[in-house]
Structures are given as C-alpha cells and as structure tokens.
Write a structure and sequence with these properties.
The complex is a heterodimer. By secondary structure, chain A is an all-alpha fold. Among the domains of chain A are: about 80 residues, NADH-ubiquinone/plastoquinone oxidoreductase chain 6, subunit NuoJ (Four Helix Bundle (Hemerythrin (Met), subunit A), Up-down Bundle); about 35 residues. In chain A, about 70% of the residues lie in helices and about 0% in strands. Chain B is mostly helical. The chains are: A mainly alpha, B mainly alpha.
Chain lengths: ~170, ~100
C-alpha cells in the first residue's frame, strides 16, 4: 500500500511537471520531448492499473510513432523559436481562469461530493494481458477492429494527398 | 492500493493542462500536442474505470482511441505542412483568410 502510494505520487508529479513543461516551453522541440516523457509516465501508470498490453501499446504507438511524427514535422518546418503573443489581449487570463474553474469543479465532483464507488478488489490473473484483450478484440469488437483498419488506410491516403506536389494545370 | 479517485483527479489535471495549451499557445504544432495530451488523459480515465469495474472493455476502447489518434495526427500534421507551404508560418493568428 505504501510503496504503491509513493510510486503513484512520484509518477503523478512527473506527469504533471512534464505536461506543464510542454505547455510553457519556448522551443517546440522541448515541448515534444516533455510530451514524450509524459506519455512514458502515463504508460507506467497504466502498468499500476493492471493494463500491461495497453501500457506497451502506449509506448509503441504514442511515444514511438506519433511523437516521432511530431519531431519530424518540427524538424522539417524549422519552427523552433516561438513567440507567445495573442490576438485577443484578455484571452490568456480568461483561459487560465476557466481552466482553474474546470479543475475546481472536477475536484469537487471527484473528492467532495459523496459518490458510491465499487470496492476495488484485486484482479484475477490474466487481467489486461494481450491474450485477454485479444479474446475480446476479435470476438466482441471485431467490427470496430476491421473499421479501424479502413480508417488507417483513409488517413494514409489523406496524408499523402495533402502533401503531394500539385501538378501544374495545363490548358486543354 | 491507491484510492481510485486519485487517478481520476490526475486525469482531470492533465486534461485541464491540455485545454490551457489549446487556448493559450499560438503555434499550431503545440496546440496539436495539447490535443494529444487531452486524449491521453481521457485514456487514463478509461483504464482507471476498467480497473475499477474489472472489465476489459475500457482497455479495448483505449486501443481504439490510440488508433484513431494516430490517424488524426497523420492527417493533422499533413494539414500543417500544407498550410506552412502556403503561408510560411504556422502561427494560428495569421491563418485568417476567411475572416469576415
């Protein structure tokens, strides 16, 4: 119980700190690196919650593919130095106030308002393993699984079309 | 065992930081990264509830959210690259050609 709590508090501090680092960094590369750290920290939190397959999928897909895409685009566009201006002068303060209000409301709902949550009991062996997830994925969620493959194909085609070179139009 | 509300609270904090990123920053790539942070915090909430109710459906949903997020990042970054080619800048304050 106590090691779990210490581990959770450390991971939570690292996650929030890296998220704030992503938010406040001057350089886009530092923001991307902070976000990678955040994703890896959340993956360890998934391990704490009994989701080993999703934890490694998180590291592979999010930190290993999505963030690498981000870093490539940042590198190719060369937009490292950012200036932090705003078209609307009061937008920043309003955003911070609204964000804090949302956080306060959520904290009230979670911690103060009495909620009946089920007792968290230890999971049975094999909870969250690839075999268990595969059983559900290929039986109950087979249709979303197949549709996801079509979605990925469409995204690939869309990305290629958007960045392909335009042929100069010739007069017919 | 850590009380399960702490995980939901952490998810809420990360979500709020993501929202602040979308509202405050002017760089399109940073805004996009904040959206990914919001998706990630929702994933954390899903996994937490899957653990609480001992149901693997939450984890399968996270799997699909990851796939959709990957597809969205591919298309979104292609859009940003295409915009950069036209305007030589990805400051969202300057993308106002449709301004009334």
């Amino acid at each position: 119980m106590i090691p779990d709590m210490i581990l959770f508090i450390l991971l939570a501090i690292v996650a929030v700190a890296s998220a704030l680092g992503m938010l406040l960094s001057r350089s886009a590369i530092y923001s991307a690196l902070n976000l990678i750290l955040n994703f890896c920290t959340v993956a360890v939190l998934y391990l704490l919650l009994g989701a080993p397959f999703i934890a490694l999928a998180q590291i592979t897909v999010y930190a290993g593919a999505i963030m690498v895409l981000f870093l490539f685009v940042i590198m190719l566009l060369g937009v490292e130095q950012l200036r932090k201006g705003s078209a609307l002068p009061w937008q920043q303060t309003l955003a911070i106030i609204s964000g804090l209000l949302l956080l306060a409301l959520t904290a009230y709902v979670i911690f103060i308002r009495p909620m009946t949550l089920p007792q968290v009991s230890p999971t049975q062996l094999g909870f969250g393993t690839p075999g268990a997830i595969g059983e559900i994925l290929f039986n109950k969620y087979l249709l979303p699984f197949e549709v996801t493959s079509v979605l990925l194909l469409v995204a690939m085609i869309g990305a290629i079309v958007l960045t392909g070179k335009r042929e100069p139009k010739t007069k017919t | 065992m850590v009380p399960i509300q702490y995980f939901i609270g952490l998810s809420a904090i990360l979500f709020t930081i993501g929202i602040l990123g979308v509202l405050i920053r002017r760089n399109a790539i940073i805004i996009f990264m904040s959206v990914e942070l919001m998706l990630n915090s929702a994933n954390l909430a899903f996994i937490t509830f899957a653990r609480m109710y001992q149901s693997l459906d939450g984890q399968v949903f996270v799997f699909f959210v990851m796939a959709v997020a990957a597809a969205e990042v591919a298309v979104g970054l292609a859009l940003i690259v295409a915009i950069f080619r036209n305007k030589q800048s990805i400051d969202v304050d300057q993308i106002n050609s449709l301004h009334g």
